Automatic annotation (TrEMBL):
Name under which the protein is recorded: Thioredoxin
Keywords recorded for this protein, A-Z: Disulfide bond, Electron transport, Redox-active center, Transport
SUPFAM superfamilies: Thioredoxin-like, TPR-like
GO terms of biological process kind: response to stress
Amino acid sequence: MAIIDPNSGAPLTNPDDVSSPSGQSVDPADYIVDIDMSNFQQVVLEGSMQTPVLLDCWAPWCEPCKNLMPVLEKLAKEYQGAFVLAKLNIEEHQQIAAQLGIRSVPDVKLIMQGQLYDQFQGALPESQIREWLSQYIQAPGDAPASPEEQAQAALDAGDATTARSIYQQLVQENPTHYDYQVALASATLADGEADKARNLLDSLPPEHRDSPQAKGVRARIEFGEEAPDREELDELEGRNDSEAIYKRALRHVADGDYETGLDALLSLMQTDRAYGDDAARKTLLRVFDALGADHPLTVTYRRKLFAMLY
């Protein structure tokens, strides 16, 4: 994996090739770059095509920034060039900050392949930052992430296309490993192709077609079909009757905002249990299927549902 020379901004293929202004080699721990208008394009956008860039947006008056920066610098040294730490002083470079939409600091953005992959705000604990980084960047000495872990990291970052490609390769290599086919259907659905996801599920052998994982993907497909579109949502604006509550809950679930949707369905059960022939309770059970029995939200809301019923 190439890295960026902190002095020239150019990509390098060998960490030992980084040079100081005097021409002497420097330790990989020095891959920490101050960003301004002259090098933002080269280091952050172009450089991230080869090496992930952690963009730390900070300000001199920000105390949490002062606490966070040493942690990020420590991690940059430990990762030995696996990512470049790019530090942006938003006070000195307000134009860049405005283009990035920075509203508060510290704001840390992970840039990969020229795209924003993930971000966090605030001075998180070191352990939490390490866990966050490990989703995307392999630390020195770590075992390479499995294809399944890579696919999940891509999904978590909103990159369903990459996850789908990984699962397609796994299916080709393991044609009778049907869990991979279900996972491919899930990634295909996340990639916006519900019909292809349904076809993948329908092509499974009967004993796998009704597995909990497959039923969950199918439930998500159905929620996407049942949920109101933007035009219908606009028509529901200002309404707080049972139908409006139910349809908005469906939209939340279809969009992946499960907690908001589940809360709305529970509320509807309390106020109008008869609506849609007990539609709120039945839909709650379908959401549980979509999430899976072990999902934290399933566990939490099953308890709430049980308490409400009994």
